[in-house]
Write the structure tokens for this entry.
Amino acid sequence: MRRAELKILRKLPLFCDMNQRHFDRLMKSALLQWFPAHTELIRERELPDYLHILVDGMVELFATRGGQSATIDILQPITAFIIAAVVRDELYLNGARTLTPARILLIQANTIRSVFSEDAVFARAVVSELATRYRAVIQVLKNDRIGNSTDRVLNWIAREDIRQHRKGSIQIPFDKRILASYLGMRPENLSRAFQTLRRHGIIVHGKTLLIKDRKSFRRLVRPSVLFANN
Amino acid sequence: MRRAELKILRKLPLFCDMNQRHFDRLMKSALLQWFPAHTELIRERELPDYLHILVDGMVELFATRGGQSATIDILQPITAFIIAAVVRDELYLNGARTLTPARILLIQANTIRSVFSEDAVFARAVVSELATRYRAVIQVLKNDRIGNSTDRVLNWIAREDIRQHRKGSIQIPFDKRILASYLGMRPENLSRAFQTLRRHGIIVHGKTLLIKDRKSFRRLVRPSVLFANN
DNA sequence: CGACTCTTTGAACTACCTCAAATGTGGTGG
DNA sequence: CCACCACATTTGAGGTAGTTCAAAGAGTCG
């Protein structure tokens, strides 16, 4: 790994506060690698060899059963994934594939586990990361079970609006069919949800969303849960 | 807290391997308390004062929004809950209420965080617990998004069958309406799902389920994901 | 331009929900 | 122990959100 890359990695929340010697140990066992788009990184039901940390690009977590597939989460940098499986040394519950070309840091699983035992600061960072992942899934599950598909789209817009600094225009960072899958619906339905929202002042042009009237937008979103979106 | 209770608690996976002095510190700040059924233990959007560990009874995690409510998980002993919020010192994403009278160990949140930093063994146990919780939610989400309501019931039966040691008869450990909510459906629909399953050799008598033909049951469940059910 | 894939639109279908009523069940006090 | 009540479950009928299938329109990239 290059010196410049190491310097950047060292600044990640997962590593920034930890002991230098432990960091070096992690990195000695690590690979930083580009993968092309649509690469299967992880297959369900296998045992973890490496902790994966997404550094560039986008990755989809998905679950399959009997030919059907469902999106669990869509990850953007910087995010460690499959932490739970690595920590417990258990089978992956979901697969992972790149949506775009992606640069991923791979750290040997048993090195993680061993450094984890010795470095409390690192341990805390790992837990924090895992907790974040947990809370993200809870949010998704909550959205799935409460409210209809249009609500889910509206919620996603509201969260994405914050993430993109409330510019009033939002870029959908991937294909609409991916967004649909993430929101647990069909592309057709996402399209129809956007139609519905247009009547409430949200205009869709390709991958750009425009919030025409922020006041009525806020009123629309109010009933939705919007705290703790990280 | 009584000496006998402490002895039992000491044996829990979360505490069994940790340093005695740290254990004592945790317990000095802890309360072991019975709560009546249907007590609200935790309210969404509040900050955690205590880590909760369910020792006896059952607890429901739920989310609400605009009057609607959805079950996130149903906990049985021994399970620590709201770990993610405690670790990150962030708002609860879901509420928790007792389903039955329940005995709960409350440990001060900041004591948890401080012992966590000093005791690597405890840290690992916390992560392990959190990872388990994470994986449980992933399973639920997966079930929600893949397959219909009858599939979800079937899957639940299969998992519960294992948990109850494949005796061939299964006790539903709570009201059917709770099960329905846990599986993200209406009680009416659960009832109809049981009807459907009866045609496949699963007989329902009150809270008792009988698997009449294990061979055909296995065939039925096969297409479902059933690995890693913990 | 032309061959893709993605997105939108329409129409028919289906699973699930809602509402309402009947039936079953457990607990309580007489 | 029984009668009764409250509440859980089941059954039925009708409505609705979302799916599926098919085809047309838009982007995108060689």
Observations:
- The domain at 147-224 of chain A is CATH 1.10.10.10 (Arc Repressor Mutant, subunit A).
- Residues 175-177, 187-188, 190-192, 194-195, 206 of chain A lie near DNA strand C (CB under 10 Å from a C1').
